[in-house]
């Protein structure tokens, strides 16, 4: 077996594309992933197993993404453990749900992307206290909204339409309505 090297961004023991593809398959057993896939199907946007792809990402993709009309990708060169893969799959399924339910969503529009990222950050568990501690963020009070805002701004930074203060302004403009929109859940999990 080949020894795994650190990735270009300094992570040790990242997984291969094949290993991450198997981890994606394993994530399909999670109740939240099953729930989101059922809700996508019910909304008229069923997603098959081949909707999810592991790939090695170059540039500033982060850990994965959703591409309308194409599917969800998980960046193998950022993944080390199953929980990281699970979180990307859940987060991106929420983005896919937003794409499905919104008639006129424009992913190049900073406010539209900010809204979906706020919802995905809030509903996926991305900013759970334990994950924040593991990232080195030790705030006890108000950690979740602060984490979501930090992660939304990071995501928006890859959108050329969100340059300068546009990212912050868009996020603040849609924060309340998007943070409180918990569909397809009855309440935030």
Brief account:
The chain has 189 residues and is mainly α. The chain has helices at residues 17-27, 31-42, 82-101, 110-124, 129-134, 143-156, 166-179, and strands at residues 52-55, 64-67, 71-75.
Please characterize this protein's 3D structure:
The protein contains seven helices and three strands; from the N terminus they run ααβββααααα. Helix 1 (17-27) crosses helix 3 (82-101). Strands 1-3-2 form a three-stranded mixed β-sheet. A hairpin with a 3-residue loop joins strand 2 and strand 3. With 189 residues, it is mostly helical. The longest helix is centred in the middle third of the chain and has 20 residues, at 82-101.
SSE topology sketch:
Layout: H1 17-27, H2 31-42, E1 52-55, E2 64-67, E3 71-75, H3 82-101, H4 110-124, H5 129-134, H6 143-156, H7 166-179
Parallel strand pairs: 1-3
Antiparallel strand pairs: 2-3
Name its key features.
mainly alpha, 49% helix, 3-stranded mixed β-sheet, 189 residues
Output mean pLDDT. 88
Q: What is the distance, rounded to the nearest whole angstrom, between the alpha carbons of the first and last residues?
A: 40 Å
Uncertain parts: 1-9
Number of helices: 7
Strand content: 5-15%
Strand order, biggest sheet? 1-3-2
- Count of beta strands: 3
């Amino acid at each position: 077996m080949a020894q795994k090297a650190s990735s270009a961004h300094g992570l040790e023991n990242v997984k291969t594309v094949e290993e991450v593809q198997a981890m994606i398959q394993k994530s399909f057993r999670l109740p939240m992933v099953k729930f989101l896939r059922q809700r996508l199907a019910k909304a008229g946007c069923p997603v098959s197993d081949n909707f999810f792809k592991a790939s090695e990402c170059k540039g500033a993709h982060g850990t994965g993404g959703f591409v309308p009309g194409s599917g969800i990708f998980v960046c193998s060169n950022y993944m080390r453990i199953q929980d990281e893969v699970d979180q990307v799959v859940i987060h991106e399924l929420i983005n896919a749900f937003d794409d499905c339910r919104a008639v006129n969503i424009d992913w190049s529009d900073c406010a539209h992307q900010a809204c979906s990222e706020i919802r995905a950050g809030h509903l996926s568990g991305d900013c759970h206290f334990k994950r924040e501690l593991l990232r080195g963020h030790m705030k006890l009070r108000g950690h979740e909204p602060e984490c979501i805002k930090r992660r939304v701004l990071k995501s928006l930074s890859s959108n050329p339409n969100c340059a300068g203060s546009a990212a912050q302004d868009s996020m603040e403009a849609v924060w309340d309505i998007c943070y409180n929109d918990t569909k397809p859940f009855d309440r935030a999990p």
